């Protein structure tokens, strides 16, 4: 693994006496793509919130580039819901995000990711299809060139062609920009096509950390 950009060490989170995260530790290297998986209620969302600083861990530490503290300025987040302002045109949204970003993505780089037609840039965001909104939300996260990108179920509810476009864009930004990516997903194709490594939790505890092939081998033996 390359030099760690994110380190989670002995992280514990308790809420009203209930342990939600139990001694979670892992590292993510610069430019890696890690799948954070587990059943609903496993603690994935709480773990993400603790890393972002939205929730305070009961104990343990999170380091971004070797430093403690809130990480919102270094991490961009793509939520499951497409939270895009609907009363702006696509070109206006892109221009706004470019204006507030220093040394962000250029128009050429944005078009390479979006692959929108000219008339789609003129549309209001709420007139785009669901898949186009998802792709736009993803690219808006990238314009500021974050060090780390959190993707929450990036391809959920999308048809095959749109999923392929999202995966292409994720691969491109991961490989060309060396953006470090953490994604949650229930789609095995996302994991196989995008991720270097899998970190699985259940009931707040780590139950696996390794590659896709190691996961298949490990859980195949358990059957």
What does this structure look like?
The chain has helices at 44-52, 90-99, 107-114, 118-122, 130-142, 160-176, 188-194, 212-221, and strands at residues 4-15, 18-29, 33-37, 59-64, 75-78, 148-152, 180-184, 197-202, 205-210. The chain is of the alpha/beta class. The strands form 2 sheets. A 6-stranded mixed β-sheet has the order 5-6-7-3-8-9, with helices on both faces. The chain has a 3-stranded antiparallel β-sheet with strand order 2-1-4, covered by helices on one side. The longest helix has 17 residues, at 160-176.
What share of residues are in beta strands? 25-35%
Category from helices, strands and their pairing: alpha/beta
> What is the quaternary state of this protein?
single chain
Backbone CA Rg? 18 Å
Largest sheet: 6 strands, mixed
Ends apart, CA distance between termini: 30 Å
**How many β-strand stretches?**
9
Q: How do the SSEs run, as a string of H and E? A: EEEHEEHHHHEHEHEEH
Number of helical regions: 8
Shape: globular
- What is the residue-mean pLDDT, rounded to a whole number? 90
- In spatial order, strands of the major sheet run 5-6-7-3-8-9
Indicate the low-confidence ranges by residue numbers: none
Helix fraction by DSSP (H/I, runs of at least 4): 25-40%
Sum up the structure in keywords.
three-stranded antiparallel β-sheet; 223 residues; 35% helix; alpha/beta; six-stranded mixed β-sheet; 8 helices; globular
Short structural summary:
This protein is α/β, with parallel strands linked by helices and 223 residues long. It has eight helices and nine strands. The strands form two sheets. The chain has a six-stranded mixed β-sheet, sandwiched between helices.
């Amino acid at each position: 693994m390359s030099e760690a950009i994110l380190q989670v060490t002995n992280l514990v989170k308790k809420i009203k006496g209930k342990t939600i995260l139990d001694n979670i530790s892992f590292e993510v290297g610069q430019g890696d793509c890690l799948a954070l998986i587990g059943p609903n209620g496993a603690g994935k969302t709480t773990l993400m919130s603790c890393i972002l600083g939205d929730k305070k861990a009961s104990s343990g530490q999170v380091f971004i580039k070797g430093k403690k503290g809130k990480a919102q300025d270094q991490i961009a987040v793509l939520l499951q819901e497409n939270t895009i302002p609907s009363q702006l045109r696509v070109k206006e949204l892109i221009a706004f995000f470019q204006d507030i970003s220093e040394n962000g993505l250029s128009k050429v780089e944005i078009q390479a990711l979006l692959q929108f037609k000219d008339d789609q840039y003129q549309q209001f965001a709420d007139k785009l299809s669901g898949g186009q909104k998802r792709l736009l939300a993803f690219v808006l996260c990238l314009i500021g060139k974050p060090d780390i990108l959190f993707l929450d179920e990036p391809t959920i509810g999308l048809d095959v062609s749109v999923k392929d476009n999202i995966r292409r864009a994720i691969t491109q930004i991961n490989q060309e920009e060396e953006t470090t990516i953490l994604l949650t997903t229930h789609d095995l194709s996302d994991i196989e096509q995008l991720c270097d490594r899998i970190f699985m939790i259940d009931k707040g505890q780590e139950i696996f950390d390794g590659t896709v092939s190691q996961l298949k081998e490990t859980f195949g033996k358990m059957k």
